[in-house]
């Protein structure tokens, strides 16, 4: 078993997943058979070999969630590539994620937070309090860590879908659990696509050895595990396909990124949409 204190040397190769961990058979033969109508899921299920890196995966659920929330905001972000000033909640979350990545890699988490961009570092003290409280609370953790910020990729029809997992943990029964760190205090419907997509990828890669998802609520020092029903996992496969189809149709039909269909998701519990001033 790999204990937290022993991680530094073990992660020199950045990749502790073995061929025995990855079993694509259930992807082809069980859960996803016949679930996506005219589209095929292909068998390129090997993990992408990349350096651990905190932040959303570029072809992942965050991209699709933003489309469903507001196609206009999606166009600002993914067509025009406009940067926005992070909110306090987003900045603290980004800093804590960076710290936890280095923590579980056996590196210096405090230095990682100090090295963040200036628009994040201004919230350093807030993030430091969260991280120190977390580290002290779980100082006796004994986790068998087999992946940190590991990105996975699958292909649905013509579309690639990626997702980066905060932690991969193997339990005493040999099951692999996907851990997701949350600093916002709660998880709500906006995370549903992210969680279901994670379960889909976990089921596809690890088959019967997939344990489920563990939501690591850092601010509340609470962890809970979920395993979405198979029917919901099948449905998210359709969602990935149909959402990408919608995006491709819009890109083909609309060449003006300032004139996408707009919704009125301009305010949420974290404040106003960062692109709101561009819309009014």
General description of the model:
The chain is built from 11 helices and 7 strands. The strands form 2 sheets. A 5-stranded mixed β-sheet has the order 1-2-3-4-5, with helices on both faces. A two-stranded antiparallel sheet has the order 6-7. The chain is of the alpha+beta class. Strand 4 and strand 5 form a beta hairpin.
Number of helices: 11
Give the strand content: 15-25%
Tell me the major beta sheet. 5 strands, mixed
Which structural class best describes the helix and strand composition?
Answer: alpha+beta
Instruction: State the order of secondary-structure elements, H for helix, E for strand.
Output: HHHHHHHHEEEHEEHEEH
Which whole number gives the mean pLDDT?
76
Helix percent reads: 40-55%
As a whole number of angstroms, the C-alpha radius of gyration is 19 Å
Which spans of ≥5 residues are poorly predicted at pLDDT below 50?
A: 1-53
Summarize the structure.
With 280 residues, this protein is of the alpha+beta class.
Search tags:
280 residues; alpha+beta; five-stranded mixed beta sheet; two-stranded antiparallel sheet; 7 strands; 40% helix; 17% strand; disordered N terminus
């Amino acid at each position: 078993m790999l204990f937290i204190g022993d991680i530094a040397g073990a992660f020199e190769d950045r990749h502790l997943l073995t061929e025995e961990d990855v079993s694509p058979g259930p992807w082809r033969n069980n859960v996803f058979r016949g679930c996506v109508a005219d589209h095929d899921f292909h068998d390129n299920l090997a993990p992408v070999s990349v350096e651990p890196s905190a932040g959303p995966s570029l072809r992942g659920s965050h991209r699709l969630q933003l489309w469903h929330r507001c196609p206009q905001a999606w166009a600002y972000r993914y067509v025009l590539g406009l940067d926005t000033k992070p909110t306090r909640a987003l900045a603290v979350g980004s800093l804590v994620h960076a710290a936890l990545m280095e923590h579980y890699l056996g590196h210096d988490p405090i230095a990682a937070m100090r090295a963040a961009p200036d628009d994040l570092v201004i919230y350093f003290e807030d993030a430091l309090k969260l991280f120190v409280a977390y580290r002290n609370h779980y100082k006796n953790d004994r986790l068998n860590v087999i992946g940190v910020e590991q990105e996975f990729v699958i292909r649905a029809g013509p579309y690639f879908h990626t997702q980066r997992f905060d932690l991969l943990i193997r339990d005493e029964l040999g099951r692999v659990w996907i851990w997701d760190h949350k600093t916002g205090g709660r998880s709500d419907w906006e995370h549903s696509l992210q969680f279901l997509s994670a379960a889909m990828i976990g089921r596809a890669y690890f088959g019967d050895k997939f344990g489920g998802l563990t939501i690591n609520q850092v601010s509340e020092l609470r962890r809970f595990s979920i395993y979405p029903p198979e029917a919901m996992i099948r449905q998210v496969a359709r969602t990935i396909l149909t959402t990408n189809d919608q995006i491709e149709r819009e890109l083909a039909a609309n060449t003006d990124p300032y004139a996408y269909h707009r919704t009125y998701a301009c305010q949420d519990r974290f404040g106003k949409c960062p692109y709101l001033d561009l819309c009014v």
